[in-house]
Specification:
By secondary structure, this protein is an alpha+beta fold. The protein has 3 helices and 4 strands. The strands form 2 sheets. It has a two-stranded antiparallel sheet. The structure holds zinc ion.
Length: 93
C-alpha cells in the first residue's frame, strides 16, 4: 500500500517537472518566434508607472514623476526628490 502511494507521488512529481519544462520551452519559443510581442508587453509595463507630471529633483537634476517622487514641504513649497538620499542631502545643504 505504501509503495503504491510512493510510486504515485513520484509520478506526480515527474508530471509536474515535465509540465514546468513544457511551459518554459513554449515561452522561450514564443519569444524567439515573436520577439516584438514580448517587447511591446515590456514597453507597456515600463510605461504604466510613469505618467502624469514630472518634477525636477533640485539636488541631482533628475526629472521624477510626481506619483513616485519623494516629497517634502520646504518653506511652504512642495519639493520633489528622486530618492530619500537626495531629500536628506537637500536638508543638509
Ligand atoms: Zn535625486
Amino acid at each position: 500500500m505504501f509503495r503504491l502511494l510512493l510510486r504515485f507521488l513520484v509520478l506526480l512529481v515527474i508530471f509536474a517537472i515535465i509540465r514546468y519544462l513544457f511551459v518554459a520551452v513554449s515561452k522561450m519559443i514564443s519569444q524567439v518566434v515573436n520577439p516584438q510581442a514580448s517587447r511591446q508587453e515590456q514597453n507597456q509595463a515600463s510605461r504604466s508607472p510613469v505618467g502624469g507630471e514630472l518634477k525636477q529633483d533640485p539636488v541631482c537634476g533628475t526629472f521624477v514623476p510626481v506619483a513616485t517622487s519623494v516629497k517634502k514641504t520646504i518653506n511652504g513649497e512642495l519639493v520633489h526628490f528622486c530618492s530619500v538620499a537626495c531629500r536628506d542631502k537637500f536638508k543638509v545643504a
